[in-house]
Write a structure and sequence with these properties.
disordered N terminus, about 325 residues, alpha+beta, 2 domains, Beta-Lactamase, Alpha-Beta Plaits, 12 strands
Length: about 325
Amino acid sequence: MALPQRSSDAAAFVESGVREFRRPGTEVDLRARVGLFEALVERFPGGVALFDRDLRLVFGNSTLKEMLGFPEELSTAAAPTMEALVRLEAARSELGPGEVEKLVRSRLASARRGEAHRCDRVNPDGAILEIRGLPLEGGGYVTTCLDVTEQRRTQATIAHMANHDPLTGLPNRLLFNDRLANAVAQVKRGGMMAVHYLDLDRFKPVNDTHGHRAGDELLVRVANEMRGSVREGDTVARIGGDEFAIVQTGIDAPADAGALARRMMLLLSRPFELGACRVRIGASVGIAVAPEHGLDCDELLMRADKALYRSKRLGRGRFRFYTPERA
């Protein structure tokens, strides 16, 4: 019987082993099959627990006890119950937030109904364990436990790369659009928000004079300054090149958006030290406010961009709100 390597196959592997040693046969044959099954499970690269129809632990490999941190008295107890194990995990806050008794009742009710379940658990040392439970034909339950820390970290890294600018680490246009959509949905229920479209002034001469490496370093510095100058609920994104955008949520009046734009312009007008050279840039900003300027995401972005164009046309280093007459 080949050992599975994926968590999705682990419970099925154990269930097939249980069916195998439940087949009719002599007592000697049965003991042999059980011994073979236990030997295989001990080699399985994860934890395995087998419960009978009364939800008592009849088998748990050594890896399971190590991964879940069973205390010695529980490990040596004769057929501890699933309730005892679940209660231990709940008391150690390993089943998530909530009252211990409520968590225990919920987990046991699911097992008694014969429901399959899957969840992640984070150990105190940061290891992420994937727990899967599967009811067995004729009664009983099998639970498997695999360390998926690297898998989850890889997934998180891929997700971050898909939603963030690789140079600055800021949200990219994809994530920005998602945050904007959430902000607009909130405004539809009441309130106000603003979209800022920001373009760096005099950025091209930095690239031309000092090279692209200096330009990249400047963009990273700008991103860090902007990120540190907004509230936690706001989003700063790099849209492309030297263009940035901000979703400013929960404002009380357009003047709040104007105050943020002034703060950004002042911040970016200060000199930046890039190695042995000092450069000065600046910023121009266009602003659209919802619901005053619309409740459509594309429309708000377009109007903030039009306001930015007017700001730059009037001399750069300024901010302008969208106006229908002279956008």
